[in-house]
Amino acid sequence: MHLVQLNIAEAQYDMESREMNGFTSRIDAINAIADRAEGFVWRLKDDGKLDGALSIRHEGFGESVLINMSVWTSIESLFQFVYKTAHTKVMREERRNFHKIPKEHMVLWWVDEGHIPTLDEAYHKLEWLRSNGASPQAFSFALPFNEKGQPVQTNFPKKDCA
């Protein structure tokens, strides 16, 4: 089994703006860290035109929402990338440029190895989490589940990396 993560964000400014430069100028470097990270399997890209989520859209999320989706071999490897690399610093420094989303904006779920998640699948997983709370079908670092659908005790933070 592999772990999928979806994370959405809504920028306060146009992605080409001066205000967003601190974020956009570091996307490639952060993606490169993810690509080399232990446990990394795959991430959503935009047809090779842009690396990352700057132009990927899905009608369910809204036109201005940035989408990041990736696949990992374990929840621990994803946690290591999210909270223990330069990713955390960038997210903390740039959070002022993003709207606070009042409900869940990140979801995790298990898939069979080799499965590439779709944006429709991701949208429905996030909506499941928002409607039903954490379960083996859709969860977060705050209340994770293992591949067998059992809750896992962790020392993961109960809040965002930002």
Tell me, briefly, the overall form.
globular
Low-confidence stretches: none
The total strand number stands at: 5
Helix content class: 25-40%
Averaged pLDDT: 85
Number of helices: 5
Oligomer: single chain
What can be said about the biggest beta sheet? 5 strands, antiparallel
Rg on CA atoms, Å: 15 Å
Strand content: 15-25%
CATH topology: Alpha-Beta Plaits
The CATH architecture can be named as 2-Layer Sandwich
Q: What is the CATH C level class, in words?
A: Alpha Beta
Order of helices and strands: EHHEEHHEEH
Number of domains: 1
InterPro entries: Dimeric_a/b-barrel (IPR011008), DUF3291 (IPR021708)
Pfam families: DUF3291 (PF11695)
Could you provide a short overview of the structure?
This protein is of the alpha+beta class and about 160 residues long.
Molecular structure report:
- The protein has 162 residues and is α+β, with helices and mostly antiparallel strands.
- It is 29% helix and 19% strand.
- The chain contains five helices and five strands.
- Strands 1, 2, 3, 4 and 5 form a five-stranded antiparallel β-sheet that branches.
- It is globular.
